Amino acid sequence: MLACELMAQIETYAPKSLAWEKDPIGLQLGDPQKEVRRIMTTLDVRPEVVDEAVDRHVDFIFAHHPMMFHPAKNLDLSVPQNAMYAKLIKHDIVVYAAHTNMDAAANGMNDWLAAALQLNNVQPLIPNADGQTGLGRIGQLTKPQTVKEFATFVRDLFQVKAVRVIANDLQRPIQRIAVLGGDGGDDYPTAIAAGADAYVTADFYYHTAHDVLADDFVVIDPDHHMEAIAKKHMVNLITDWQQENNWVIDDVFASTINTDPYTYI
């Protein structure tokens, strides 16, 4: 299978038109005409992830987060990021990213998160014109839980040591839940307007948190790394596409590297 065939399939599933206009999605590095046989999925492309790819003879890396948020200003290989690019080129590895387009896609990142949170009757939180795609999701828990109970569930679900909870009352019952993968702090008023009792998102800003308390709302921040859920889902998607298209692929697997930069003490 050629890398461009897999790229085209990803873009059919999560069209580039759904992405934020400044998001550097798509082909990050490599030859789209390269024959690929071993595919690895990851949340982030970091040096340790590339080392894993080299060790496992990977041809193609699918990443949720773009590798090149900021263009390289030079190719000084003493800079770790540049050295990583050089290693990818040396080993002829194609890197491709689907970020905000996968966030907004139907049955994409935010639907995966909503399913993991066990939400029912799920709809886009910030819908596009078609009503089926868009950022974030909102849905119902089967039965009410207290803020503390649900926050504990979220902590355990995403396998983090702690979650940040912004709430005036940890014993308040909640049932209608909004979720937005990644940095969704600016959109908490949208969750309130949509009738959410609580909002799950990441990278919440200190002063915005004060606004949440003033609005007597609830936010649970389990860390941006919650989007690592994409790794296993992309393995499943690529495996399905392989069967549908009769692609010759030797292996598709998720990176075992935890790229969360935070340590909780």
Structure, explained:
GO terms for molecular function: metal ion binding. Pfam families: DUF34_NIF3. Belongs to the GTP cyclohydrolase I type 2/NIF3 family. The chain has 265 residues and is of the alpha/beta class. It has 2 domains: 126 residues, Udp-n-acetylmuramoylalanyl-d-glutamate--2,6- Diaminopimelate Ligase, Chain: A, domain 1, CATH 3.40.1390.30; 117 residues, Udp-n-acetylmuramoylalanyl-d-glutamate--2,6- Diaminopimelate Ligase, Chain: A, domain 1 (3-Layer(aba) Sandwich). Helix content is 32%, strand content 24%. The protein is built from 9 helices and 11 strands. The strands form 2 sheets. Strands 5-6-8-9-10-7 form a 6-stranded mixed β-sheet. The protein has a 5-stranded mixed β-sheet with strand order 1-4-3-2-11. It is globular. The N and C termini lie far apart (45 Å).
